[in-house]
C-alpha cells in the first residue's frame, strides 16, 4: 500500500510545470523541437554544427516518439508526457536494479521511491536522469556477470552491456567515471577468464559507437565524421572553458551537493561491516566511490552531476538503529519539503505563462530576472531569441536586434535596471507591442522606471518561487507579465 502512495506523489510532482535548471530544456527538448517540429529556438553551442559536441542519439531514442504527437498535444502536454515517461522508466529500472544488485530490498525500495530526486530530477529531461537509468542497467549486468560467470547468457549480456555503455558515453562524457572501480572488478573476476565474452563486448562496443557516430554525422549534416563525445571531452579538458560555467571548490560535491541529495539520511547511514573481499564485491558502493572521487577532481561541480549516484548510495549503505525511530519521519518531511520547493514551486510560473502566451500573436517579449524561457514552448516558426552578452565582465545588450519587433523573445537574464531601461526604450521607439515578464520578488525594482513607463499587469501566476532574489522584497512567490507603454 505504501509504495502506491509514493508513486502517486511522484506522478503528481512529475506533472507539475516546475523548472529546475535550464539544461533540462536547452540540452534536450529545445534541440529536438527545433529539429523535429521545424520551429525556431535557441540552440546551445554544443549542438551547433561547428562544435557538434553532443550526440543526438540518446535524445532521439528517449523523446522522438513524444515529439511525433505535435498537433495532438500542446507543448505543455508534451512536457508532461516526457516527465511521466521518465518517472515511469525510473521506477522500472530502479526496481530491476534492486533485484539484481541487492538481496533483500524492502527498506532500499522505500527510500528509492520516496526520494525527492526521484520525483523531481529523474522526471525532468536532464541528460543526468537518463544517465541514472543507463548506469543502473550497466551495474546490474556487471553484477550478473560477476556473480554467475558461467551463466548461460554471458555473451548476450556482454553485448547488451556494451550498447548500454556506448549510449552512456554518447549521452554524457562523464559516464565512464561511474564505472571505473566496478570495471576493474568485472575485468578481473569475469572477462579475464572469459575471452570470448570480452571479444563480444569489444566488438559490439565498437559497432555501437560507429553507428552512433554515423547517425550524428547524418543529423549534423557534416562532411566529416562527428565524434560527439570526443569533441565534448576536448572542450571540457580545457579549464578556461570550464571557468565560463563557474568554478567551484573541489569539496563542493562531497560537502555541499552530497548532503543535499540524500538529506537527513546522511545522519543515519553507516557503512556495512565487511571484509575487503566483501567491499570488492559491492558493485553499487564501488560505483559511488568512483563517481564521488573522480567527479570531485573537476572544478565544475553541479548537484545534478551526482543524481545517478542517489539510488546507488541509498541501496548500498545500511541505516543505523535510530533510523526507524527518527530517521523515517525526518526523511519523509525533508523529501516532501524539497519536492514542493524544487518540483512544484521552483521557477514554476514560466511554463504556464508560456502556455497562454503562445496562443497570442507574439510581438516583443522581454524576460527579466527569470530562468531562460524555453523558447520551444512558443512552438513558433519565426521566433527570434536574443540575449545579453558580456564584455570584460560587464553585461551588455550589443547582440539584441532592436529593429525586430515581431516574434522576438528577449532574455535579459539577471541584468540590472539600466539595461532593462535601455532595452524598453529602444523597443518602444519602434513598437507599442512590448511585454515584460518578471518575478514578483523584484516588482519593486520596476518603480525606478515608472517615471518613464507604465507597467500594466496582464496576468499573474502565483506558483513561482524565485530563489535568486530572496530577501530583496517581502515577496518570494509569483511571476507577472506586464504590457509596457511609454508615459
Ligand atoms: C531610462 O532611459 C531614459 C531614456 O534613455 C532616460 O531618460 C531615463 O533617465 C532612464 N531612467 C533611469 C531610471 O535610468
Automatic annotation (TrEMBL):
GO cellular component entries: endoplasmic reticulum membrane
Keywords carried by this UniProt record: Endoplasmic reticulum, Glycosyltransferase, GPI-anchor biosynthesis, Membrane, Signal, Transferase, Transmembrane, Transmembrane helix
GO molecular function ontology, one term from the record: alpha-1,2-mannosyltransferase activity
Protein name, UniProt field: Mannosyltransferase
Main location: endoplasmic reticulum
TM stretches of this protein: 62-82, 163-188, 200-227, 332-354
UniProt keyword Endoplasmic reticulum, yes or no: yes
PANTHER family on file: GLYCOSYLTRANSFERASE, GPI MANNOSYLTRANSFERASE 4
EC number per UniProt: 2.4.1.-
UniProt xrefs under Pfam families: Glyco_transf_22
Species of origin: Zygosaccharomyces mellis
Membrane topology: Multi-pass membrane protein
Protein family: Belongs to the glycosyltransferase 22 family. PIGZ subfamily.
Pathway linked to the protein: Glycolipid biosynthesis; glycosylphosphatidylinositol-anchor biosynthesis
Subcellular location: Endoplasmic reticulum membrane
GO biological process, one term: GPI anchor biosynthetic process
Domain of life: Eukaryota
The keyword NAD is annotated on this UniProt entry: no
Amino acid at each position: 500500500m505504501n509504495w502506491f502512495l509514493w508513486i502517486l506523489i511522484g506522478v503528481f510532482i512529475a506533472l507539475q510545470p516546475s523548472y529546475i535548471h535550464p539544461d533540462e530544456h536547452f540540452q534536450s527538448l529545445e534541440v529536438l523541437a527545433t529539429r523535429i517540429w521545424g520551429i525556431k529556438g535557441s540552440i546551445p553551442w554544443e549542438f551547433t554544427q561547428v562544435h557538434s559536441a553532443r550526440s543526438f542519439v540518446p535524445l532521439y531514442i528517449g523523446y522522438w516518439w513524444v515529439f511525433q504527437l505535435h498537433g495532438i498535444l500542446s507543448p505543455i502536454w508534451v512536457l508532461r508526457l516526457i516527465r511521466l515517461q521518465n518517472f515511469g522508466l525510473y521506477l522500472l529500472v530502479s526496481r530491476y536494479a534492486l533485484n539484481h544488485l541487492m538481496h533483500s530490498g524492502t527498506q532500499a525500495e522505500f527510500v528509492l521511491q520516496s526520494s525527492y530526486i526521484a520525483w523531481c530530477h529523474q522526471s525532468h529531461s536532464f541528460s543526468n536522469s537518463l544517465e541514472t537509468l543507463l548506469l543502473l542497467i550497466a551495474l546490474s549486468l556487471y553484477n550478473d556477470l560477476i556473480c554467475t560467470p558461467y551463466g548461460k547468457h554471458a555473451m548476450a549480456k556482454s553485448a547488451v552491456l556494451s550498447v548500454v555503455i556506448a549510449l552512456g558515453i554518447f549521452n554524457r562524457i562523464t559516464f565512464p567515471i561511474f564505472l571505473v572501480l566496478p570495471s576493474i572488478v568485472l575485468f578481473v573476476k569475469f572477462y579475464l577468464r572469459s575471452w570470448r565474452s570480452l571479444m563480444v563486448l569489444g566488438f559490439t562496443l565498437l559497432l555501437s559507437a560507429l553507428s552512433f557516430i554515423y547517425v550524428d554525422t547524418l543529423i549534423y549534416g557534416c562532411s566529416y565524421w562527428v565524434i560527439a563525445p570526443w569533441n565534448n571531452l576536448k572542450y571540457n579538458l580545457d579549464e578556461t572553458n570550464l571557468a565560463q560555467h563557474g568554478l567551484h571548490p573541489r569539496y563542493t560535491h562531497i560537502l555541499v551537493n552530497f548532503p543535499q541529495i540524500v538529506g537527513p539520511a546522511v545522519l543515519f547511514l553507516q557503512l556495512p561491516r565487511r571484509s575487503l573481499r566483501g567491499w570488492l564485491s559491492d558493485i553499487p558502493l564501488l560505483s559511488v566511490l568512483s563517481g564521488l572521487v573522480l567527479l570531485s577532481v573537476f572544478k565544475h561541480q553541479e548537484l545534478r552531476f551526482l543524481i545517478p549516484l542517489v539510488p546507488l548510495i541509498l541501496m548500498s549503505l545500511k541505516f543505523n538503529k535510530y533510523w526507524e525511530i527518527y530517521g523515517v519521519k525526518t526523511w519523509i518531511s525533508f523529501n516532501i519539503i524539497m519536492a514542493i520547493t524544487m518540483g512544484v514551486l521552483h521557477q514554476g510560473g514560466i511554463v504556464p505563462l508560456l502556455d497562454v502566451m503562445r496562443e497570442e500573436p507574439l510581438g516583443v517579449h522581454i524576460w527579466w530576472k527569470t530562468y531562460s524561457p524555453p523558447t520551444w514552448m512558443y512552438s513558433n516558426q519565426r521566433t527570434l531569441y536574443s540575449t545579453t552578452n558580456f564584455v570584460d565582465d560587464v553585461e551588455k545588450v550589443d547582440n539584441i536586434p532592436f529593429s525586430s519587433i515581431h516574434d522576438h523573445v528577449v532574455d535579459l537574464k539577471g541584468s540590472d535596471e539600466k539595461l532593462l531601461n535601455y532595452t524598453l526604450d529602444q523597443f518602444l521607439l519602434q513598437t507599442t507591442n512590448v511585454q515584460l515578464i518578471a518575478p514578483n520578488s523584484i516588482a519593486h525594482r520596476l518603480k525606478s522606471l515608472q517615471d518613464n513607463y507604465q507597467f500594466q499587469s496582464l496576468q499573474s501566476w502565483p506558483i513561482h518561487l524565485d530563489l535568486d532574489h530572496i530577501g530583496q522584497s517581502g515577496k518570494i512567490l509569483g511571476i507577472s507579465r506586464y504590457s509596457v507603454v511609454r508615459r
